[in-house]
Amino acid sequence: QVLLVESGGGLVQAGGSLRLSCAASGRTFSYYTMAWFRQAPGKEREFVARIAWSDISTYYAESVKGRFTISRDNAKNTVYLQMNSLKPEDTAVYYCAAKLSAPEYNYWGQGTQVTVSS
Fold first, then answer.
1. How confident is the model at residue 101, as a pLDDT?
2. Strand order in 68-73's β-sheet?
3. Digits of tens for pLDDT over the chain (118 positions)?
4. Which of 76, 79, 75 is nearest to 109 (CA)?
5. What span, in angstroms and rounded, lies between the C-alpha atoms of 20 and 97?
6. Nearest Cα residue to 82 out of 91, 72, 92
7. Dist CA 53 CA 46 (whole Å)
8. Are 54 and 16 in contact (CB under 8 A)?
9. What does the angle CA 91 – CA 96 – CA 97 come to, to the nearest 5 degrees?
């Protein structure tokens, strides 16, 4: 069982930056693939970025590539999402997710709101 708690959301002007954190419980955190998703009002939840347990492999949605960076600190059981050059269309609730080998992410956080004003 993994419990995920996100933090770091808030209101920022376009062009600004935010860093989201996701603290995970569980001694086997380092074996999980971690990811960030987001859901804007009236839209489907969408993938943002993921990082493998090894911290070597990362993958990003085209919409955030070059602006967002996902990283993890296995010693702190924490995954981060550094978001730079934010745009109003990045406004959404951001969710942290985790999985081991399953194709679907089976652990989710409660979400943190990110609002980017124009």
1. 80
2. 4-7, 18-24, 78-83, 68-73
3. 789 999 999 999 999 999 999 999 976 777 889 999 999 999 999 999 999 877 679 999 999 999 999 999 988 999 999 999 999 999 999 999 999 888 899 999 999 999 999 9
4. 79
5. 13
6. 72
7. 21
8. no
9. 135
Q: What are the strands, taking DSSP E only, across the chain?
A: 4-7, 10-13, 18-24, 33-39, 46-51, 58-60, 68-73, 78-83, 92-99, 107-108, 112-117
Among candidates 92, 99, 110, 4, which has minimal Cα distance to 43? 92
The pLDDT of residue 55: 66
How long a stretch of residues is the chain? 118
| Token code pair at residue 60 | 């990003």
Among candidates 79, 68, 75, 74, which has minimal Cα distance to 105? 79
